[in-house]
Amino acid sequence: MSYHEQHLIDTKPPVDEFVVQVQPPASRMQRVRATFAGVPALGWLFGILCAVFIERYLGAELSYQLYLPKVPVLFGCLIMFKQPLLMPNALAYVTLIYVIPIAGVACLSARVTNRLAAVLDRGPIAVSCLIHLALLYCALHYWADLSDYRLLVLKLTMIAVMLTLSINLINGYMGEFSCSHPGFMALGAYSASTVTLVLFADDRLFGAAVLPKALGPYFFPLALIIGGVVASAAALVVAIPSFRTRGDYLAIISLAFMFIVKSLIENLEWLGGPRGMSGQPDWSSLPVVYVWMVLCIWIINNFVRSIYGKALNALRDNEMAADAMTVNTRKTKMVAFMLGAFWAGVAGGLFAHVMRFVNPGTFGIQRLAEILAMLYFGGLNSVVGSIFGAASINLISEMLRPLELYKWIVIPLILILVMIYRPTGLLGFREFDVKAILRPKHIRTGRGE
Amino acid sequence: MPLLHVSDMTHYFGGLRAVHRYNLTLEPGEIRGLIGPNGAGKTTVFNLITGIYRPSEGSVRLEGHSLVGQRPHQIAAQGLGRTFQNLLLWRHMTVEEHVKMAHYSQLRYGLIGALFGTPRRVAEERRVAESSMRLMEMFDVVKYRNLLVGNLPYGAQRRVEIARAMAIDPKVLLLDEPTAGMTPEELTKMIGTIRQIHRDFGVAILLIEHRLKVVMELCEKIQTLVFGEVIAEGTPEEIQRNPHVIEAYLGKEEIA
User: Fold this and answer.
1) Which CATH number fits domain B4-89+155-250: 3.40.50.2020, 2.60.40.420, 3.40.50.2300, 3.40.50.300?
2) Whole-prediction pTM value?
3) CB contact under 8 A, A335 and B111
């Protein structure tokens, strides 16, 4: 064992003695790893929840004691970049509030949570999923409760997850290169905003509200769905000419489509033109965005695991063979493209109601670059990859915000490294098996794979 | 009524006449061989029957229904399974997914099922999984079922392709050089597999083959295609003795 590894172990919390081991593992490093591998998803959620509550009640006091100007918002990164001298203090804060409680609680409670996970595992999968999702929501809710900035970052991250997942359907699973996602997003954002502004808000573009405002939140899902449907109708227009052949045609047509949408909105005065549209009601609260994101993940995961979804992989790998094996390739491509566009539209609608302002400039080439970066970082052909990619690129880019211009050197560098060492992304070609994730992890079966 | 009836099928690639007035009458349960030198148009005949190309002239009928002008997946779904000369497998998919995928046209759940995971979809996917399992057992690829196809030995890849073609529940199976590039052991196994398909499923088989030994052993009747035209048709013995065939394969005897 190298000096470096030894050092790492010494700083880890001493949790080894709580583990029931049949085979004594070879080294302490492995033992630590086995300990963590024995924690089920439920255990981690409990750990995170505990950390969030500790921060809620002790965070302010601790940051005062550590001479931090305020409670670190994004794991101390902003403070570290702004005032490098405070780096040890910020690290201490992160360790005390997040690392130790999460690791400690997760490991200490592993036995109990494993037993609970086993109970849940015997019941229907839906119940188990809902319980885990509810716990995750609690953790996120209380974490975001501490600052508005966190709340905004969290919502935008969730929207980014939806966007990445929906573009993965086209660029990853279907293997075509589509650049039109910002366009779909713009259509969704503008359609949903128009519906809510016309019906439920007094604003400068559309005048007084038509319906009582109290009804608004109930109609909001409908507005989002309208946004999604408009986007997928536009997708049909792009798809009909470009899916006759394979190759670069879709890339070119979809790129053109993105610019057409952008300049169309810029030139429509009744939609606000280049100045944009503002005053959307703030109905994109955290639970709303969370529920839509979960819905999006669930539906897309269902789709890609069905035979219809696998048909996308078949026609990507060899279209002629797929056709000869009775796969209706044209219909499959259309459905996937429209489904992707639908979710981009919904994400756009949510985005408009988070920012409460949209303008055509938001949906340009830079947005496309961001979405593609998240997609290729996380991994093609993988639902987990999309979630991971969207969350990490979004968080990294927020954390590096103090670097200002240099941020746009660091992020592309990360991407280049990923492309060199993992050309299909960090988690490419992984199945998202919910059951396997939620399953209890019994350590006694071995060293925990 | 013949099962598959092709009459006067002609196809041009630009000015090149690839297939000229090709006729075929395939009865249920028959194994027919199609031989010919390289570039004779054998694979083109397959592509014309399965709808990858549309014949310039002539008709193709399966149980009396015309196939000309239909899209390949529609033709396949009516009971025309095929394999490819150069193994067109899906490299990011496992063996099991290959066999499942070919059940596409038999699925009785729609988009709603695919998006929301309805009980009917669960039942259907279970049925497909069982059916795929049977096929994989039959073609001896069960042990590879969770592997990506690229990791399989060559002979097993060929068997996966046939299992996949059989999963569409075909009436006619078109095999395009199923023994190309095989070792002698794999070859023997493949001949056994083709016999087994013929016996157990009762499908009619149209077989393109370069190795005359295989065709002679399997087929009751053989067609010989040279430059897009059938120059000889008959039992293996007749074909072996036919002077045109000998000429096409070995060249004309020069009389000095």
Assistant:
1) 3.40.50.300
2) 0.90
3) yes
